Amino acid sequence: MFVFYCKNSLLGNEEFRKKMVEKYKFECKEVECSGSIELIEILRAFERDKHLVIVGCLEGNCRYRTGSNWARRRSQEAKKIIEELSLDCSVTFLNASRANESKFENEILKIAKW
Amino acid sequence: MIVAERKSYEKIERMLKGKRKILIVGCGGCVTVCLAGGQKEVEILAEMLRLGAKKLGIAREVTEATVERQCEREFVLQLADKVKDKDAILSMACGVGVQFVSDIFPDAYVVPALDTKCAGAPIERGIWNEKCALCGDCILDEFYGICPIARCAKNLLNGPCGGSQNGKCEVDRTKDCAWQLIYERMIKFGRLDDLIKLRMPKDWSYARDGGPRRVLKESVR
């Protein structure tokens, strides 16, 4: 699993991120805002791992206002391409607040099990 | 501008069957503006072809280039070094660009990655509507800036068909009835009497009916 995360999202918290990385053994890359992740970056990341996760802020709580919305749209675009190419890959957009750490972890666990 | 859309990956893959060294050429003109064939789209398609090749287990070398405009000799000639030794050139320009690249490099196998759709304009983010049918004999002056040839599903020159509802076309309810728009413009300019004016059939010899068209400007020859 390869994870792009917004530095203002839940994974931006160093302590929580370290815990998750150690537990689920994934590579990750910090970005200023999840909305800045271009479709091409998502596609190129498939060369690193089959399963990608984009972690953004909760909608309406994005530091740059619409970043999470854009990240969700890009992940949907990437899903369409995966479908078009019939690739055995996945892209998941996750957003959660500190109050939902366990829900977030469950989602990561599901992807890690694939 | 010319509005285009990428062909399905399946069709592109079919066109490139057996080709190992591929050059994808983008165009910085209209297709960049309509988000179909600019540098960004070239990068995405190149990555798709790489991922596709990996999946199929075939060796494929994909290189990328984007020129200012694929419909101008000076810009296309810049590709000369890159075109050499390539098995296929995948052009992400409109039909004009694809043919122009093919004309300039007659030994290259040039295929289109896009379907050229129409001459249109964006009406909102992500939506382009056809505005001009390139008929070669503009009649927009008679219709207050709304083209019944390009924007009426039935190309009617003498009033509406009667099938529109709430200002929308009966052929496609998401589109405005061109004649409703013309009618509103006529009222706006106080020229509603123009609606009953009889218009003779259009001379289509200026359009495709007269064969492939050529524009000549002696002053710059």
Structure summarized in a few sentences:
The complex is a heterodimer of chains A (114) and B (221). By secondary structure, chain A is α/β, with parallel strands linked by helices.
* Largest interchain contact: A-B, 12 and 12 residues
Structural class per helix/strand content of chain B?
alpha/beta
Distance between the termini of chain B: 26 Å
> Which regions of chain B contain 5 or more consecutive residues with pLDDT less than 50?
none
Order of helices and strands of chain A: EHEHEHEH
Instruction: Return the CATH class of chain A.
Output: Alpha Beta
Q: First CA to last CA of chain A: what distance?
A: 9 Å
Q: Major sheet of chain A: order of its strands?
A: 2-1-3-4
* Biggest beta sheet attributes of chain B: 4 strands, parallel
Strand content of chain B: 15-25%
Number of strands of chain A: 4
Number of strands of chain B: 7
Strand order of the largest sheet of chain B: 3-2-4-5
Assembly annotation? heterodimer
Count of the domains of chain A: 1
Judged by helices, strands and strand pairing, the structural class of chain A is alpha/beta
What would you call the shape of chain B? elongated
CATH architecture of chain A: 3-Layer(aba) Sandwich
